[in-house]
């Protein structure tokens, strides 16, 4: 009963998180659904940037690669190495998922520092990086949870759930709660870092508009890339853990 009540409380926390707002936001009312328009707009921009960039760089592969082709080949090799290191020999099918997570988060984070979202006026609220919104980071974290559950169940079947009573059944409540804390830590780490970085830049620009913000923005680009790497690495590690059954 303690485990059930704890799980119910955790689900209630997720529902409360989905209602968290920082500032005002623009919503679209479609039927009975209230759509968070700011996140959709900026997410579509990020997806468009990725699709256009890939199409331009690799639509005509060359025997002697161009600079753009070299860049994307390096990124693919990097993602493949990351996936192999964290997941193991069965990493192949998971490269698209890990790569999508890494590239979407990376470009989203950088868009917050490089694109002038603030100059686009909205009826309510203002545009910002997709990962600057808790709904985006929670959605990415939940997708990661679904992925590692799928990985474990597809390889081990129902015997996957034996992990909850290993090495001893006494750890059952802790092992169950671990699966709830993973998406919580993933989502809040990414959201908190990106939000804090953008707030620091905004404050410094308002106080010292000419000198100080530039090194802070450069540091923000670096930390944004690191956050994307951390998220992708942890996602791959969780998938590898569920398939191998080790902690």
Automatic annotation (TrEMBL):
Which is an annotated GO molecular function term of this record? proton transmembrane transporter activity
Spell out the SUPFAM superfamilies in the cross-references. Answer: F1F0 ATP synthase subunit A
Return the InterPro entries for the record: ATP_syn_F0_a_bact/chloroplast, ATP_synth_F0_asu, ATP_synth_F0_asu_AS, F0_ATP_A_sf
Topology relative to the membrane: Multi-pass membrane protein
Kindly indicate whether the keyword ATP-binding belongs to this entry. Answer: no
Question: NCBIfam families in the record, alphabetically?
Answer: ATP_synt_6_or_A
**HAMAP family documented for this protein:** ATP_synth_a_bact (MF_01393)
Keyword Protease attached:
no
Species, as recorded = Rhynchospora pubera
A GO cellular-component term linked to this record: proton-transporting ATP synthase complex
Q: Which UniProt keywords apply?
A: ATP synthesis, CF(0), Hydrogen ion transport, Ion transport, Membrane, Transmembrane, Transmembrane helix, Transport
Q: Which family does it belong to?
A: Belongs to the ATPase A chain family.
Protein name (database record): ATP synthase subunit a, chloroplastic
Localization (cell): Membrane; Plastid
GO terms of biological process kind: proton motive force-driven ATP synthesis
Q: What is its main location?
A: membrane
Q: Where are the transmembrane segments?
A: 35-58, 94-114, 134-153, 190-212, 218-239
